[in-house]
Amino acid sequence: MYHIIGSDQKEYGPISAAQIRQWFAEGRLHRATATRPANETEWKTLGTLAEFADLFPPPPGLTPPKSLATENCGLATWALVCGALGFTCLTAPVGLVLGFMAHSRIRQSGGRLTGSGMATTGIVLSLIFMFLMLLAVPAAMLLPALAKAKQKAQTINCVNNLKQLGLAVRIYSTDNHDLFPPAETWCGAIQTTVGSPKVFQCPVVRDQRCAYAFNARLSGKKTDAVNPQTVLIFESDAGWNASGGPEVMLKSPRHAHRFIVGFADGHVEQVTETRLQQLRWDP
């Protein structure tokens, strides 16, 4: 209920809001009419009361009063920004929290704040990047282990290759008066007793027909006249039927800082660079 001061300077009331709107429509009241709610003592002009603001629309081109204007929620904007930058894995949780806070403020604003769409987008982007982060961290931890396992498998494969090549040399010797094969044709000499051409290939360098070399000092030697600890076959990049001594051996190891070497008695070792200097090459 309200009291008003009429144009005759007399006080009227209490009257309802509906009555005020009717009198305003009839032209009996205007923006400057003194008005006060029944439960207040202070007189105000009708145009300053928020409940009657719709009776006095702003002129075209003017911005409505701030109390009635809508504005974008700043938290929604920041939620979107943090969500979009979530690939850094640092802002995604922040974007998620800001997005929910923005939705809460927008609901409580009574329509004054907008930006729920941006807040929702920020939440979705943050969740996506957080999910990807949860997948990426275990994957990043697993990759070194997988690489190590692959390297170990390649080393084992290479060791097995040298064992098979050493066995093929002994089979050749048994069939040839206990003589080691000729160094210049050793690959061809044992080829028929090797199960597969892949045995000549190191798993690290598949493009080489043969990744190993024969100790040329054993060429045509009697097997029982050779010290069992003498180098027989070793890793090399010299190619098919390669032979020689330390000069044709690899300059750097292929397998975890180890060189793989086969010996005259058939055993195979993974040796360090220091141990390499101590190997026996002469029969």
Structural summary, described in words:
- The protein has 283 residues and is α+β, with helices and mostly antiparallel strands.
- It contains 6 helices and 11 strands.
- It has helices at residues 17-25, 74-84, 92-108, 116-175, 186-190, 273-276; strands at 2-5, 11-15, 34-37, 44-45, 71-72, 113-114, 212-215, 231-235, 243-244, 259-263, 268-271.
- The protein has a 5-stranded mixed sheet with strand order 9-7-8-10-11.
- A hairpin with a 6-residue loop joins strand 3 (34-37) and strand 4 (44-45).
- Helix 2 (74-84) runs antiparallel to helix 3 (92-108).
- The mean pLDDT is 88.
> Roughly how many Å apart are the termini?
120 Å
**Estimated share of beta-strand residues:** 5-15%
Helix content: 25-40%
* Number of strand segments: 11
Number of domains: 3
Specify the structural class.
alpha+beta
The topology string of helices and strands comes to: EEHEEEHHEHHEEEEEH
The strand line-up of the biggest sheet is: 9-7-8-10-11
Overall pLDDT: 88
Shape: rod-shaped
In short:
This protein is α+β, with helices and mostly antiparallel strands.
Set out the fold topology.
Elements: E1 2-5, E2 11-15, H1 17-25, E3 34-37, E4 44-45, E5 71-72, H2 74-84, H3 92-108, E6 113-114, H4 116-175, H5 186-190, E7 212-215, E8 231-235, E9 243-244, E10 259-263, E11 268-271, H6 273-276
Parallel strand pairs: 5-6, 7-9
Antiparallel strand pairs: 1-2, 1-3, 3-4, 7-8, 8-10, 10-11
Helix pairs in contact: 2-3, 2-4, 3-4
